[in-house]
Amino acid sequence: MKSILLIGFGAMGRNVFSQLESEKNIRVAYLLERPQMCSEIQNEMGSGCKVISDLKEMEVLPDFAVECAGHGAVGTFVPQLLRLGVDTIIASVGALAQSGFPEELESACLEGGS
Fold first, then answer.
1. Reduced to 3 states, what is the DSSP secondary structure of residue 24?
2. pLDDT means per 10 residues in the chain (114 residues)?
3. CA-CA distance, 15 to 92, in Å (whole number)?
4. 101-105: long-range pairs with CB below 8 Å, 24+
């Protein structure tokens, strides 16, 4: 079974989460959200998914990550994940328009083998 990290739990993140709930070979192991939202969302999630506010809270690296949280989250978390070797899908592709950012992501991928 593949485990994923879902970044963001707004409208898009909730939709992705609900679509993945029925998948037998994929589970959302971690949900990354703003600190002030974590306890409320964790109550909603139950024990099947750990809600975190920092990548350092992951006990085990997920098989891949899905970003659904906006450009800021792409800049903050995606390079870190790629350097850790975690393949990452981004929804907020507008972040790629930032000068030098695609090259930063490429460098992170090479460094992490992602």
1. coil
2. 96 94 92 91 86 96 97 96 98 95 97 97
3. 15
4. 101/75, 104/79, 105/78, 105/79
Element (H, E) at 41: helix 35-45
E strands within the chain?
Answer: 2-7, 26-32, 50-52, 64-67, 87-90
Query: Which strands, in side-by-side order, build the sheet including 64-67?
Result: 50-52, 26-32, 2-7, 64-67, 87-90
Report whether 55 contacts 67 (CB < 8 A): no
CA distance 73 to 103: 17
What would the two tokens of residue 26 be? 């994929």
